[in-house]
Amino acid sequence: MVAIRHVTGYAATGAAVLALALAGCGGGGGGSGGSSSKTSTPQNSGSTQKAATGSATSMLTTANIAKLGTVVTDGKGYVLYRFDADSANPTKVSCYSTCAALWPAATTTNQGSVTTKGIDKSLVSTVKRNDGSTQITLAGWPLYRYAKDDEPKEPYGQGVDGTWWAVTPSGAKITTPASTSSAPAPATTGTGGGGGY
């Protein structure tokens, strides 16, 4: 009986540690102020690499989302986002480590293999991430998925932390709030970042 209570205590402690780690990730902000000097290499997090490579796509297309308009999606119909802490000129990636677990990079195995539908192919390029993967960019902006978008055309990441935005076919960000009727309320850390840096 004592041993069972002891094991249960460890399980509860483990669950609490996991909850705190996820809370530190916040609603999805990926950095604090966008400083690239605070990025960490994703090799330290196996889950980050799995998330980033798990979002590989070979197609960018568009979809019409109520209240947002025309957005860019991957080949499976998942909404793609850009992050205000990144930059387009020059292209800079700021979302690594814990941030990348919640906001996996839209990656490809080869820039030439990305096809487009409804998007000017000349706006599509790539950037190398710290882990060596190739992230797709649109008009210079690195593209991401949101892990909480578990169905195609779900824009739950829209406006998270005031820094994550669905992207238009021209690479511009959509700042219209997403409908809140079906979207889960994102947790935030109150710092505006909370991406685990």
UniProtKB/TrEMBL annotation:
Residues 38-53 have a biased composition (Polar residues). GO terms for biological process: alkane catabolic process. It comes from the Bacteria. Residues 31-53, 175-197 are annotated as: Disordered. Signal peptide: none annotated. This is Lipoprotein. InterPro entries: Lipoprotein_repeat. Pfam families: Lipoprotein_15.
